[in-house]
Amino acid sequence: MQASCIAPRALPLRPGGQPHLFGASSSGSSRAPLGPPQLQRDSQGRGLAQLVAQAARREQQAGLNRMEAAVPREQRPVNELQQLKDTPLLAWATLDLPQYAQRLLILYGGVFLLLGGPIAAQTFDPLDQPLEFFLSGSTGSLLVVAVAALRIFLGWKYVGDRLLTASLEYEETGWYDGQVFVKPPEVLTRDRLLGTYEVKPVLARLRTTLQGVGVALMATAVTLTVLINSQLDADGAYGRGSARKLAQVTPTGILYSSRVKDMADLAADDEAAELEAAAQGGIPGYCGDRYFKAFAGGERVCEKFEKRR
Predict the structure, then answer these.
(1) Are residues 182 and 260 in the same domain?
(2) Positive or negative torsion for Cα 177, 180, 186, 190
(3) What is the per-residue pLDDT for 19?
(4) Where do the segments described as Disordered lie (predicted)?
(5) Domain-located, residue 15
(6) Residue 13's beta-bridge partner residues?
(7) Cα maximum dimension of the chain
(8) Does residue 75 sit in the same domain as residue 213?
């Protein structure tokens, strides 16, 4: 039985007679080629195509700039659109939805902590009336968010209208020399593409934001109003004032304690003065008026209450 032999495949020769080894360059260096010749040609072709496309876009943009040269650069809608994207607040609308919602929540929370909450705490005790406190603070905070969203919407709406219109109003050198520029077909086509595919989606998102914030603002305001109206007393007073019951009206003033018959009695009866102070939230109401304070006994009567503040 004869053993079969397979002859090795001959390697291609270089022009000098040396075999060409895969992975060796034609110059004799050890650097390997980038890849198979077909891939190299494809890579070079794609790179060349990108360079040609970029050059064509630059040439096209230069031609469009020449067509609208009469309009100052800062008043051209395409440049105004770029300014929107570079402005911190107005650029929120171009963010991804999670980041956009996060910015609005941060704005709401910051306003609530710095303004809405402290102001609401002056009327509603956060511990005794947590729901009223939250609704009151949220109403003010949502109002600020609504104003910010409206500002963003108006900025994008203005630029969107200038992109989609066929004639463009601009100021040549100042407010007194307004001009009208009729867009050439090429410029109009570019602007309308930008307005349709970049501005309109942003405006749709902002409209949804305004509607959502408006509904939330109305819900908090209505709920807070219902809660306040449900806790009014017969005299129409709410909160601290609703706990006060008018005992009697005297010629010298209004007394809330049934034990006091006259404002002058407060000067001689410390216990009655204490009851009157407790009935009016810690300090008698007459201490804020010099006329009624005089009937109650003068400065001496109110000093002990004012020291407690």
Answers:
(1) no
(2) positive
(3) 45
(4) 1-45
(5) no
(6) 19
(7) 142
(8) yes
217: containing domain: 63-230
Q: What is the pLDDT of residues 2-39, one digit of tens each?
A: 444 444 444 444 444 444 444 444 444 444 444 555 54
Q: Are residues 222 and 155 part of one domain?
A: yes
In a shared domain, residues 224 and 277: no
Which distant-in-sequence residues (6+ apart) come within 8 Å of 269 by Cβ? 259, 260
As a whole number of angstroms, the distance between CA 88 and CA 10 comes to 68
Q: Mind spelling out the 3-state secondary structure of the chain? A: CCCCCCCCCCCCECCCCCECCCCCCCCCCCCCCCCCHHHHHHHHHHHHHHHHHHHHHHHHHHHHHHHCCCCCHHHCHHHHHHHHHHCCCHHHHHCCHHHHHHHHHHHHHHHHHHHHHHHHHCCCCCCCCHHHHHHHHHHHHHHHHHHHHHHHHHHHHHHHHHHHCCEEEEECCCCCCEEEEECCHHHHHHHHHHHHHHHHHHHHHHHHHHHHHHHHHHHHHHHHHHHHHHCCCCCCCCHHHHHCCCCEEECCEEECCCCCCCHHHHHCCHHHHHHHHHHCCCCCHHHHCHHHHHHHCCHHHHHHHHCCC
pTM of the model: 0.59
Q: Provide the number of structural domains found in the chain.
A: 2
What per-residue string of b and e applies to 178-201 under the rule 16 or more CB within 10 Å gives b?
A: eeebebeeebbebbeebbeebbee
Residue 260's pLDDT band, with cuts at 50, 70 and 90, is: low
| Same domain assignment for residues 90 and 211 | yes
Give the tens place of pLDDT for each residue, 182-199. Answer: 888 888 888 899 999 999
